[in-house]
Amino acid sequence: MAPEEGAAGVCGLQLMAMALALGAPADGAAIVVTATGRAEVARDVPVAVQVIGAEALARAGVTDIRQLNQLAPTLLVSSTGSEAGATGARIRGIGTVGDNPGLESSVATVVDGVYRNRPGVALTELGPLARIAVLRGPQGTLFGRNATAGLIDIETAAPRFDWGGAAEASLGNYGLRRLVAGVTGPVARDLAFRIDGVGMRRRGFVTDLVSGRDVNDRRRGLVRGQLLFERDDLTIRLIGDYARRDEECCAGSYRPTRSVTRGADGGLVFGPNPIAAIVRGLGGTIDTDTFGRRTAITPGQAYRGDVRDGGLSAQVTAGLGGATLTGISAWRDWRWTRGQDGDFNDLDILRRDPDGGAGQRFETLSQEVRLNGRALDGRIDWLVGGYAARETLAFRDNQTFGADFARYASCLLVNGAAPAALAPGPAGCVDQAALLARIAAVRGLPAGDAGRTVLPLLGALAADPARPGLGSLAGSLGLAGYDPAGRGIADRFRQRGRTLALFTHNVFRLTEGLSLTLGGRYTDEGKRLRLALADDNTLCRAVAGSALAGSFALPCLLPATAAGTFAGATRRRDREGTGTAALAWRPAAGLLAYASWSRGFKAGGYNLERTPLARGGVIASGADLAALAFAPETVTAWEAGVKLSRARFDLALTGFVSRIRDFQLNSYNGSSFTVESLNGCKADLGGADRDLSAATGACPAGLTAGVVARGVEIEGAVRPGRGFALTAGMTIADTHYADDLVGTGGRALSPTLFQLPGRPLSNAPRVTVTGAADWTPDLGGGIAGLVHGDLRYQSATNTGSDLDVEKIQPGVLVVGARIGLSGAGWAIEAWAQNLFDVDYIQVGYDAPLQGGGTLRQTAAFGTAATQVYGAFLAEPRTWGGDAAPGVVMFA
């Protein structure tokens, strides 16, 4: 263990002790869950599950899934360039980076029994809730798709057969206004209804220095209507909902800039960053006060994120004598319109235009049927079922070069070919005299010298003194007067998926206290992809067909198609068996010990990005669409745990090991997304997976797990007296890549991922601690008080999927609090989240088109690093008050 990791562990243990001393109500201790497809008490289920009830959710201010971080130590939800389409959820350090719509999450999200396509789809107002359960480890047997790491199971509040209503208003800093209202009651003797609505507005946390407006704001609304029919052994619950978001998110902040080179003595030398100097010289803004929460957006551009999300579902439960039949039918439609200032500064270099159709749409139809019952006098509790779904994903991407691209690209050209000739400024960036001197120096080099490879490029740059840089380069290729502004790509991807599955889950009661659970699932999943790519990047095509090919890639930042358009279609089919086995022993009332094995599966798919199709910057007419495919992800997990429940306390201890093959990694290199299916190699690669060559490091032997996670989880709850309760949880996990790491099918690891072998995954803290405490004293006269506090400590993590050291977030402690008074149907409360206003980042990223290299690369290989980095920030301190009028309240 490294010294800093040891310190984190000690701090985590101290915080665990603090949390157990301060805690919060354990309303999950006796909550009924459906983790096994049946209604069971959470403490009796041989599954690692944390259940958070309605009261605990309300006191922690949970209104969307990201706020669960404060309560669930094994869960981490974070977002990057968009909260709608770039949200990732991780359990035990395992998850999928959420920026690429072609990748499905390793953590499934289910709302009222209906699978949601991506975590970002659920990062919205959830309305009144009954409870949320976080199931850890593979859940593929019962819940099926994409639950290789775990599951977030959300149950909303159901209709009631007695009249009730609720209304709550919230005001807070950053102009927060939130209103929740609902009513429930009987329609007839067997029929009840419920209608809930939520409206929320809040200013952004980041100020645009150009326009003065606040961005990363909140504008959300939700309406949900329900009908509940209950008669004898028949229950029917109908739910319809519609959610709307009109937000501008997400702008990033710059990290401090520097360049890194290696000196003659082998030591690292830090200096001013030339890329940052170019941006500033051209009139752009780079504010390196990361937590000053300021950004600079190109005039006329925005981080638009408009979401329309709606659906219908029907859950039918019918008693059939000795069995119960459950069916869940659902339709969902989710649409996102996207805009983005693609360079994250106020130079107009690259953009996505919502008016040009950038965005996504998911439309899903699903049907699940379960039949369960008991046999042999209750000694066998059996369940069989089937699941079918059809999903259509439409993804449209347009990226366009802006008005400043030519000036900026010219500066990058000169900086790469003749740094001494660089003179960035609003009028241009080339010192012609210095450029000509460089050409003369290169011509004087001996034959075969590497400097000769840049001579054609230098000559092209000097060809037209009136238009130095990109303009003269274009002129030398027969494109006189070429202007890249407004040129770009317009791509459409349409993916149709279908899933069919059969499953069974059975509990055999071997003795009074001993039971064996056996489950299995067979999944057949197919995907069909059609794509239509279009572009007008004629300079890329000209460069690729010239002597400059390979020496200058910048015009092909957006790879061109050979004919201006490209269309194709492909399909894949994955069939996999998964299962679970658990042995549970109940030696005494309130005591459960268990050990389990499980296997999970996430289907393969396609990287919805044109870059992998390009060779030499151009997509040929016969390009192989197999370059977009990635393999299915599978996980094998072992778990052992003990759960103890008593009148005044609960305690759970779990140990786990998970081994993942073909781990689906999505990483961003500053210009495009790379998707790899990672495995370990049984042979010693001798460090070939840690070099900068794509030609070395292929696996000569068999493949093994590419990711391994192991650790322990501790959860405790204490109820020492009436009105006082506390809970705490701690996770110590080691989630890391294999030492000898290879890419898809055992091919050599991509050079951009040379830092991964043997290191922890991104956003996988070694130690996480959560705790909460509640005191609800009776103040007399029908009035009760509330004092609540919660905390989350998370040790240091690397927030970037490529593990650049520049993206490390040190350990952080976040505290929330709430105080209030309540009476018969009324309540007034004051609250704060991130009480001590702790600054920390969710995710670090390579600023697009702004340099390259990283400190580790310079240290290992001597290459200079000029990359400029940005960060998506976590929320600052927020505070406010809630008030509920004197009406009948319900959960």
Query: Can you give the mean pLDDT?
Result: 89
Low-confidence stretches: 1-29, 887-891
Termini separation comes to 46 Å
Count of separate DSSP helical elements: 10
Instruction: Assess the beta-strand content as a share of residues.
Output: over 45%
Q: Helicity, in percent?
A: 10-25%
The helix-and-strand class reads mainly beta
Radius of gyration computed on alpha carbons: 29 Å
The gross shape turns out to be globular
* Main sheet specs: 22 strands, antiparallel, barrel
Number of distinct beta strands: 55
Keyphrases for this structure?
mainly beta; 22-stranded antiparallel β-barrel; five-stranded mixed sheet; 891 residues; globular
What does this structure look like?
By secondary structure, the protein is mostly beta strands. It is 10% helix and 49% strand. It is built from 10 helices and 55 strands. It has a 22-stranded antiparallel beta barrel. Strands 3-9-10-7-8 form a 5-stranded mixed β-sheet. Strands 40, 41, 42 and 45 form a 4-stranded antiparallel β-sheet that branches. A hairpin with a 2-residue loop joins strand 33 and strand 34. Helix 6 runs antiparallel to helix 7. The chain is globular, with a radius of gyration of 29 Å. The two termini are 46 Å apart.
